[in-house]
Structures are given as C-alpha cells and as structure tokens.
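From: lab user (bench 3)
To: helpdesk
Subject: output format question, protein + iron/sulfur cluster

Hello, I'm new to running complex predictions and I'm not sure whether the block I got back is the full result or only part of it. Here's what I submitted:
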Amino acid sequence: MFMERKCVALISGGLDSALAARLMLEQGIEVSGLYLSLSWGCCDKQKAVAAAHQLGVPLMVLNVGEAYLEVIRHPKYGYGAGMNPCVDCRIYMFRLAKCYLEEIGAGFVVTGEVLGQRPMSQRRRPLDLIEAESGLEGLLLRPLSAHLLDPTLPELLGVVDRSRLLRVSGRSRHEQLALASERGMTEYSQAAGGCQLTDEHFAKKAKDLFAHDERPTTKDMELLALGRHFRIGPTTKIIIGRNELENLLLEGHAQEGYACLRPRFAGPSALVVGPWSEEVRDPAVSLIVQHTKEEKLPEGALEFFVNGRAWSMPRDTVSSRPQDAVKL
Ligand code: SF4
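Helpdesk reply: Thanks, we reran it on our side. This is the complete output you should expect:
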C-alpha cells in the first residue's frame, strides 16, 4: 500500500501541536497545518498562525460552523465539567480534518494529543473511540504519545519512523518544554486550558441559551463571551457592556432581531436580544442606570440612541432595580 509522505497537522497555537508537527518535519514529511476555530473563543489563533510561520508550514483556518452547535446540544458522549462536549467535539473536528486530508491528498493526520493530559478526551479509550468515529482509523498519529499507543498505518508502512516518536504522558509539560527549547521553538501559547465551554460562567450562559432557543447561531454563542447577561423572559435577554470595547462590540451586533441602547451619558450599552417592546425597554434602561456611576447620571431626561435613533425618557420614571431580570 502506498501512502503520501504528507500529513495534515492540527495546530492549536499550543506547544504540543507545534511539537508534533515539528517531529514530522524532522522526518522529512510534508506538513499542512489546519486550525479549527470556534468563533466564540477557543484556542489561540494568533499563536497558531505564529507557530505555523515559525515551523515554515502553510496553515488553513476553518471555522467549525453552525452544524457544530448540534454537537453542543446533543453530545453522544456527554459533557465535561462545563458545557464542553470534548469527545464529540474531537470527533467532529477530526472529521473536518479527514475532509481536508482528502482534499489536499495527504496521507494521515497528526495531533499534539498526549495520553492522560485531559480527563475527558485524552484517556486511552476516548482516544480510540475518537479515532474510530472520525473515520481516521489507523490514520491518526499522536507523535508525542506514540510509544504508548498502537502503531498507526504510516508507522507500519514506514512512512514515519516510529523509533523517532515519543512516550510522553500525563499533565506535566516539562518534557515538551525541554524539547521545544532544544529546537528553539518559541511560538506557542503558554496557557494550556480548554475553550470557553469549559469555563463555568460561560457554560451557565450557554446552558441558558440552549434551554431557551431551539436554533441558536454562532452569533448567539459569540455574544455569550461579551458583557453581563440578564434573562428577562423566555425569548428576551439583555446584555450590558463591561467596558468601552464591549459597548462598541454590542452596538455592532444590533442588527435585525436585536436592539442596542447606547446612552448619551457615560454609561454602558445594553443589547436587547429578542423583540423590542415597552416591556423590555424599561428593564434595559434600569440595568443601564444600575451599572452607571451616580455622578455620571444626568439630572433630567436620560438620552439614548436606540439602533442609532435618538430617544429619551425621564429619569424619575426609571426603576433602579429591574423586576424579573435574572443575572446569568
Ligand atoms: S476543550 Fe472545547 S475545543 Fe477542546 S475538545 Fe473540549 S469542547 Fe472541544
């Protein structure tokens, strides 16, 4: 059986994936990098680009798209500590990697996974399961832990020299740091965490979103990373910016189905997610007032732009504690 001396290497911006790709390059194997992005916050895209640059390999950047949201909603293998469906997520991503492999005519896929490093997806059984369910059986090479795993097809065919692969396991990164230092590798993210879905605050907001919305979009997911969220009703949420950057980003999201209140005084913007009505207008203004310093509030009317149009209401009609606003 013939196999191309060319692989797709998943590059996350972290040390392990860069090192795995480097081990392939050292064996004279052509490497095409692939960065799979969750647009609401995952790995470090800039570091992935920098790592690929330092390795001297091309990098394809792909967004996972709307279909990924079904993976979050109904993970076959459940969630980790937050709302992170790590096993299903890896299967989904490796299926994308397989499509890319076929498109560019590569022989196999390389990842920086390390046996025992992550509790949910990097134990032996999930690693085997992910390989089988992604359709990459025998074609998924984890060079850092290769000696602790069964030989893959590229090793059996002699495309990859197994004796030059590693036996790394567990959560310590000492060995990888030493190997990177020997090789002068500097472009990798220091943080070794998971994505936003592993964060308990983000997970709480994501659970609320999926509980109230049959068909959330990636835009809804991106909004979870911005501001303070308050649920007002089954179809309505209000998001309050925490700084000027978030205020501007919230304004940028004010398209159909959203309304953004931008105060003309020094207070935060409020993005209403859901139908705009009097019932939602009052709590939105109350939340803005609640998150504005007293000395910044004007004496008379409170003036706003609502989706760019001027609007005002008397200050003394605003309740300082919005009823029925549940902080997420
Ligand atoms: S941490 Fe997030 S991106 Fe990584 S495998 Fe888990 S769900 Fe997927």
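A quick orientation on your result: Residues 86-104 form the longest helix (19 residues). Let us know if anything else is unclear.
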